[in-house]
Amino acid sequence: MTILALEIGPEGFAVGPVAEDADDEDIQRIPIPAEGVWDACRDLLLDVAADEEVTAVGIASAGPIDMSAGVIAPIDIAEWQTGFAIVEAVQKLFPVAVVRLAIDGVCLGLAERTFGATHSVMDAMSVTVSHRISAGVMVGGFVVVGRTGNAGNLGHVQVPGFDDPCECGGRGCLESVAGGAALLRWARGRGWTGNSLAALTETAKIGDEIAVEAMGRAGTALGRAIASVAPLLDIDLVVVGGRVAESGPALWKPLAAAVATHARLGFLTGLRVVPSELQGLGPLAGAGVLAMSADQAEE
Ligand SMILES: [Zn+2]
């Protein structure tokens, strides 16, 4: 018997077995193909399952999703943009398995609560800033799912002082300033010549002027968004991970400055914003938590 965790990210699939002794080497990853997306996902799941009977599968997916229908419509996967019934498809593949789906941000929140920095608090937010921005909000020890499963969409929180057009159709969303795609667009528009988000974070670390300025905008915007959410939810801890969070002081200094400037209420004096220690494994680990709890509930 085996339990699987599946992550459907903007850039790729990851599948790993859920077990006490599972480690990084057990996780298999593939990029999202332009066509035959489900075929590739199915083959990866079958590969990791290795003919064992699968009793539970937890799925962390980029949004938006329809959690109750088990349908996902990730904006970065063209074939699935209008909706793909992932729960039904995985259920057909593993007929006896319990299949659970949540958005990647919610899974991140579950992972930080179970294995990470929010373990010791009741009210917190866990954020990934990478190609996209996702977050999991924990209130009173529970990770908030929302009406349709899409709660925690920090990427589309409005950031004062910014008016960049967002892919969602709005303007001034956090993701339109601090999301990886937006950062690359902004930096290239000013003459930066790199070709990836990893290159942008690396050049920011070594002081490239445009990269530092791009991360400065991102840090300020992220800090303002956090300073907006913190009083709304009365949280005292925010954990930030993802590739953009690996840019060093270019991001973290303006982020801390923005939080210090805007989060001024007395009950927010203890607000801490810290880097994640989950090394990018948050959504997949959270999918594992989903699968484990579903499996135990069935027993
Ligand atoms: Zn938006």
Automatic annotation (TrEMBL):
Its EC number is 2.7.1.60. GO terms for molecular function: N-acylmannosamine kinase activity. Keywords: Kinase, Transferase. Coiled coil: none annotated. Transmembrane segments: none annotated. It is an enzyme of class 2 (transferase). The keyword Amino-acid biosynthesis does not apply. Pfam families: ROK. Belongs to the ROK (NagC/XylR) family. This is N-acetylmannosamine kinase. It comes from Nocardia macrotermitis.
